[in-house]
Every structure is written in C-alpha cells, then in structure tokens.
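Expect chain and fold; see below:
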Amino acid sequence: MNLRFLETFVWVARLKSFSATAEKLNTTQAAISHRIATLERELGVRLFERGTHDVRLTLQGVNALDQAEHIVHSTADFCRRLSDPKAIRSTVRIGIIDTIAFSWLPQLINRLNRTYPQIALELSNDTSLALAEDMLASRIDLGLLMGPVEGPAVVTVNLCSFACAWVASPKLGMPAGPIEISDLIKYPLLSFPRNSKPYKAMIDSFPNFMKEDLCVYTAFLATLIRLASDGLGVATLPVATIAREIADGTLILLNVRQTLPPLACHAVYQDLISEPQRGLLAELARDTAIEYCRATDPLIAWPVSS
C-alpha cells in the first residue's frame, strides 16, 4: 500500500474536499482523485461518498480513519527520527511572534544552521492569531506563537512561558510603592495588537467600569519598547524582551497590584509524511527554548513540560 495514498485519504477525510486536499498536498485534484480511487480499489471498499460540493466518509471510511491517522503519524515520526540532518534540503517558512524574535530566535537560527545546514529559512512576523491562520492555510510551515492551536493534523509542542509586567520610563515619575490599577488610567497604555492575548490580558486587568476611560495605543514589540522608553505611556511587556532597557534604566518595572498572566509559547505545525523537517524544527525550537530558559532568571522565563 502506498503510504502517500493513505495520507491523502486522511487529508480528504479531514478537509472534506478533494480540491482543498490537493492544495494542502501541493498537487492536482485529479491526482487526489486517482490516489483515493486506487486506495479504494486496493482495499476493496468505498471510503467516500462524493457529493456535488463535498465528500463524506462512508461507514467503512469512518472505521478506517483512526487506524490510518495512526499509521500516517507513526510514519511521519519514523521519517523524522531516521532522517540524516545534513541530507535534508528544503526551504522552511517560519512565522514568529515578537516575544520569541526578541529573546531566543538568534540562538535557534544558529542551532539550525549547525544541525541542518541545507535548510533555508523564510521568516515572517505577526500576531499569534494571524500566524495560526497562516499555518492552517499552509502559508507557513511552522508557527512559533502563543497557542495552542486546534486544526487538522496540527501538532503542538510546548516551548516556554514568559513573565509579563507593567513597565514605564522614569520620565513618567511613577511611584515606587504599590500602584493601584485605577492609577494607570490617567496614562496612555501601550500594548500588543488588539487581536492578541497580551492585549486581552491587559484590558481584563481593569474593572469593566474603567475600560471606557482607557487610552490604548497598540503596536508590535519594537515600537512599544520605543514609545515606552520615550515616556509616552505605560506598557505591558514580556520582561525577557526588555532586559537591556531595564539594565540601563531606560525602563523600570512597576509595582502594580494587579499582575499579568504569563505568555505561554508553542511551536505548531501540520504533520506531513513528505515534510519531516517541520517536526524536526519544532523539536529544535523546543530544545532552544529550554536552553534559553536555563540561562535566564526563572522568574522571567521558564520551560513548559509536555
């Protein structure tokens, strides 16, 4: 039995579409139809009922799906374990959130260049929500983001968590003692884009009756650090990303009574037999995150066990 055909069966079952499966597996709809027809002929059963706009599993198809998924996943894992790192040649598209880009991304790239010298990277930067959508739509191969992410064949690898804090420039003259959340509404608040988890966590720190009085500027991390350093507002930022600014006194940690939840980061990808490099790089990202956390204050960043 052709394992690629079995993988095709799994994807058609998940996506309920020959055309969507063809796009996912980078082939033609005719090729997908041929693979499924061949597989049905070899098994002697009909796996799908073809409709005008979609396809549905038959009873035999439903019974076969769990075992097929197990075989496909085990085969993909087998390919990852036995692949010669120096023989893997490909271009991998990785989407990264700012928090990782400003912490351990350089170590990951150095490690990747040593371990997989024939892999080229295409990097993109966006919010976790946008990167999750890009991964599910196959616009990127691997997402390093705040997850987890649910979807067909999605594998989520725990990476690390970052402590998040209220920070500001000394220019604002914030008090050193405990600060109430109500004391912050007189300042502009600086946070990540509105569809991000850090933004929601910041907003949720305020009682509902205060939220209408908030002035919030949203941006990506580099801009937030610049605005906060110039005294243009109070920011909520991962502490690991502003170590330099805290060390030189450009930014100070504020003692706000309402603390912020940590940011949990994950590597997410869709498992494909034909592309074992996705899982290999996710594992490399996990190892890099662990190494970074071990060399960092455990109150700032810490690994997350699987």
Notes: The chain has twelve helices and 13 strands. The first helix runs from residue 3 to 15. The longest strand covers residues 154-162.
